[in-house]
Amino acid sequence: MTSDEYEAALRSLPEPHSLALRLTDAGVPDDVICGYLHIEPEGLATLLDLARRKLHAVLSKPPS
Amino acid sequence: MVDRWPLTGRVEELRVISEALSDDERQGMVIAGEAGVGKTRLARAAADAATRAGWAVHRIAGTTTGRPVTLGAFARWADATDSAPQGMTRKVFAELTAATGDAPLLLFVDDAHLLDDLSALIVHQLVLQNAANVITTIRAGETTPDAVTALWKDGLLQRLELQTLSHNESGDLLRTVLGGSVSPDCANRMWTLSRGNVLFLHHLVEHERESGRLASVDGEWRWTGTPSVSPSLVELVEMQIGAVADDVREVVDLVAIAEPVDRMLLTSLADPQAIEAAEQRGLITASTDVDTVYVGHPLYGEIRLSQCGPMRLRRLRGRVAAAMAKTEAADPLRLGLLWLESDLPPDVEILSLAANISASRLDLGLAERLTRAALDAESTPATKLQLAHILYLQEKGQAAEELLNSLSPQELATHNFIDGVTLRAANLLFPLRDPDAFRAVIDDAVLLGDEARNQSLLTFRAIGEAMAARPAETVETMAGVDCGRLDGYGRVLGYAAETIALGDLGRTAHAGERAAAGYRELVESPQESFHASGLAEFHAYALLTAGYVDDAVAIANQWHRQYADLPGMSLSMATAALGMTALGSGDLIAARHHFDSARESFGDYGEISGLFYRFRILHTEALARSGDREAAAASLESTRQSRHPAYEYVESGYLLASAWVAAAAGGVTEARTLSHQAVEFSRGHGQIAREVLALQTALQFGDVSGADRLTELATKVEGPRAPLSARYAHALAADDAVALDSVSRDFEAMGDALAAADAAAQAATSHRLAGRRGSALTASSRGHLLAINCGGAVSPALSAARVPLPFTRREHEIAKLVSLGRSNKEIADATTLSVRTVEGHIYQASAKAGVTSRSELSALVLQFNEV
Prior knowledge:
By secondary structure, chain A is an all-alpha fold. Chain A has 4 helices and no strands. Chain A has one domain (3-60).
């Protein structure tokens, strides 16, 4: 997978999911991410889990 | 309508929810998100999948108009009777779980942010007690009941922040819904406007398709329309609901006003074709498991309710309420509330029944509104009594008294245990703090001479006597009552009064029997638990004063477990009683914790009636005995300010708490004086079990003047405390250290660790004065160890016995190595001393400590190290 493919996959996700992944990868603290996304701290783990699953699903999809 | 759209872009979400249901750690999922994002649609799909996987699924929903109806969401599983919340909750639990068979129970709670507090509490308890898994939706940013918030804050449920669809997912949905390819321009612009909000997208598509601007051209859907201004979701929904026919909109309004509405009821109110049209358009939706109808989306209801003027709302409520009143299945509380806020003339029967139910579910504000409306419609003695009762429950003593004062003696008297007379008496005793007036009302009513009625009145008199510290009179009064002629509620209160009185008289076994009779009564006919709850507390206190400490702790724990599943007044009282027995057994940390949490859960309620007063006394004592002088003094001051004349039976306890506060501040003489006052008070009122406790406390302050009286009481007061205290008094009077050691061990065995610590400390002082240094050190360290185990107890006796080991620094070091089992050679190596010098230090240390062997020295050092 090239970085372009990864970037394209990220862009195809719902915006809050891609943003959460980008911020996490950049080492942004959890509370700051929750503030950006307007979510409760208890919801962040599931949001990231979903984002990764959706990203994986996009990357696993055969090219159309 | 959105429900009929396909679910797209939610594969991962469904999988995560399914995993949460099979997770051992969490018990389901909270789906949170903005309006229109598709929470309900996703939750429903997850619930459907769970059904296919073998779960028994029940659905409830919070609604805007249902929120003021206590327990409204669970109405179909609850009784329509006016039984207490505890019983109601248990019934809902039983009903929900009974129908599931072996299948695990899944509760689907839609819009949990709109649940009433009691329904929210039941959901929380179902999860907490592992009785059900839950999938629930909440709208992000809305105020949510605490019990719902706790579901994810306490980690019981996982929280899923549902997001809008991505551009691609939105395009997929459009193609599926429209059944063909969609032009990129159309997909782009629709996504730009909707930002992936499914409800928005839905309304946009429907609106534009109806207008003809969204159409299929050459096999491709194209959108020629361009809104001049991007509408908000609310505007878009308003536009579309505004465009439907009047009769269809009326259907939405009728449902919104009383959601959920029975389908048959709706059919009697609106044209079936209009109902079908509303359903077809998704403006209303029928629940599949029961025949009830909701608005298609909470937003529709909110928009319609905000657009209806007050007159229209009253008229609509009137229509629904009038139709509901003709059906048997209607929830009386919901009916009463609709009626209250409708254009219908007040109906006393409907409003009064709803008021009773509301009061029993502890929504006293609503109960008062309903009763006042009933009273305005028809001022009868019955409605006046009902309102007075609700005012009394709200501690509005003066208003209740004025109302009761307007009734004649005949109107006040009925053949219920609680009638106008007993209500007036209770109102005078508790909120109005006037025991004399209480007695006068009961005495006057007794003089009327109705024998059947007098059974209740005498029981009430006995309650007043028990609380006024007149135990012998209480027992005498109750001897004249034929309990068989009381109702269950009256019997429980009568047994409670006798339990207090018999406990104070030192007749512990009898007190236990009366309490047991009360427990049996409660099993057979559960009463309002708050009143019933006193029974176990009084029983536990009787056991504590008698010296059956472990039994008292067991009773308090059992009672607490019984109410632990539902926050409320009963649990607050049970928690405070845990504090009482913890203090009695010397667990000061637990005592303070329980009193703090009980105090917090009581809130301001009961302040006027003195509900927490007796526990505040014990809390003060716990603080003082922990050495927290400032907190104890502040607590004593607030206890003094809240002193309640009805609670005279705890006066000796108040004096003893004051004594401990004085002692904590170094005022031992004052402490002795106060404990003497406690002795005098309890003796003067015949509370001989409390007198034993007061005399024991005086002994702990070093006052032996009550020795002979204790000898006398040892033959009159049941239980081990009185004879042990008598031994304690004689040992202390004789300065018999060995006997004090023995008394200390017996107090420890009895469960009163605080008294054991003091007796050990006094034994240490006695040994020291007799020159028995080793024994003094042993007893002193034992006393201090007990005090530490109590959570850091302090007392004058412990302070006086505080003696350090009289060793030099070198002797300390070597004695410690001895206690660690090192040989003299090893100690010599470790300290770079000669073996001979080490032997010399061990000899010196043993001589100073008054011990004669290496093992005794070792044991002593180990004890001091623990201290």
